[in-house]
Specification:
The complex is a heterodimer of chains A (116) and B (107).
Chain A (H helix, E strand, L loop, with lengths): L4 E3 L2 E4 L5 E6 L6 E7 L6 E7 L2 E4 L8 E4 L6 E5 L8 E8 L10 E2 L3 E5 L1
Parallel strand pairs in A: 2-11
Antiparallel strand pairs in A: 1-3, 3-8, 4-5, 4-9, 5-6, 7-8, 9-10, 9-11
Chain B lengths: L8 E5 L4 E6 L8 E7 L6 E6 L4 E2 L4 E4 L5 E6 L8 E8 L9 E6 L1
Parallel strand pairs in B: 1-9
Antiparallel strand pairs in B: 2-7, 3-4, 3-8, 5-6, 6-7, 8-9
The chains are: A mainly beta (116), B mainly beta (107).
Chain lengths: 116, 107
C-alpha cells in the first residue's frame, strides 16, 4: 500500500515570496491533516480536512496561509507571503475516518522549507 | 498544550529493552494513548496505541497503568535503527504533540 506522498521534499525561498506544497493521501483516506514542525519541536496541527470540508483550522495563520482539498483527495498548502519564521518542515498526514473515537494518522515524509 | 510529559532524552544499549515512560495524569476515559517515532528527516511513524489494556505488535509493547495516568512503551530488543524521537500522544479527535523523548541506542 502506497503511503502519503508529498512534494517537493525541499524548498528554499526568499522572504515575501510565495510557496505551495502538495500532498496525496493514502488511497481511501477521508481525513487529511497539515502540520508545521519547527526545529526542536513536535508537529503542530495547522488544518484538518474531512473529505473536502475543513474540520479544524484554528491554528492556521489565515492572513498568509491557505489550504484546499478540492476533490476530497489531493491537497495543497500555500504560504503567501512567506516570513522567516515560516522556516519549518510541513507534514501531511491522512487517516481513514477522522470522525470516530480514535483514528490512526499516517504521515508523509514532509517538505522542508527554508525562508531566507 | 500537550497532555503528556516525557523525559527529554534516554540512552539504551543495543540488544537491550528500551522502556520509554509517559505521564498523562489528566487523561479522560475515552482518550487513547498513541506512540509515534520520528527518525531524523522523516515524518512521524506510527508505532502502537491503546485505551486500557496492554497492547503488543511487531514493533513494540504498550503498558498502560490501571489508573491510565501513565504508560510505558517497550522496544524489546533495541537496535541502532531505533534511535529516534519518540512521541507519546493522548488523542481525543486530534493529536497534540509534545517535544518527545530522544532515544539514543548505543552500540
Amino acid at each position: 500500500e502506497a503511503g502519503v506522498a508529498q512534494s517537493p521534499r525541499y524548498k528554499i525561498i526568499e522572504k515575501r515570496q510565495s510557496v505551495a506544497f502538495w500532498c496525496n493521501p493514502i488511497s481511501g483516506h477521508a481525513t487529511l491533516y497539515w502540520y508545521q514542525q519547527i526545529l526542536g519541536q513536535g508537529p503542530k496541527l495547522l488544518i484538518q480536512f474531512q473529505n473536502n470540508g475543513v474540520v479544524d483550522d484554528s491554528q492556521l495563520p489565515k492572513d498568509r496561509f491557505s489550504a484546499e482539498r478540492l476533490k476530497g483527495v489531493d491537497s495543497t498548502l500555500k504560504i503567501q507571503p512567506a516570513k522567516l519564521e515560516d522556516s519549518a518542515v510541513y507534514l501531511c498526514a491522512s487517516s481513514l475516518d477522522g470522525t470516530g473515537a480514535t483514528d490512526t494518522q499516517y504521515f508523509g515524509p514532509g517538505t522542508r522549507l527554508t525562508v531566507l | 498544550d500537550a497532555k503528556t510529559t516525557q523525559p527529554t532524552s534516554m540512552d539504551c544499549a543495543e540488544g537491550r529493552a528500551a522502556n520509554l515512560p509517559c505521564n498523562h495524569s489528566t487523561i479522560s476515559g475515552n482518550e487513547y494513548v498513541y506512540w509515534y517515532r520520528q527518525i531524523h528527516s522523516q515524518g512521524p511513524q506510527y508505532i502502537i496505541h491503546g485505551l486500557k489494556n496492554n497492547e503488543t505488535n511487531e514493533m513494540a509493547s504498550l503498558i498502560i497503568t490501571e489508573d491510565r495516568k501513565s504508560s510505558t512503551l517497550i522496544l524489546p530488543h533495541a537496535t541502532l535503527r531505533d534511535t529516534a524521537v519518540y512521541y507519546c500522544i493522548v488523542e481525543s479527535y486530534k493529536y497534540i504533540f509534545g517535544t518527545g523523548t530522544r532515544l539514543k541506542v548505543l552500540a
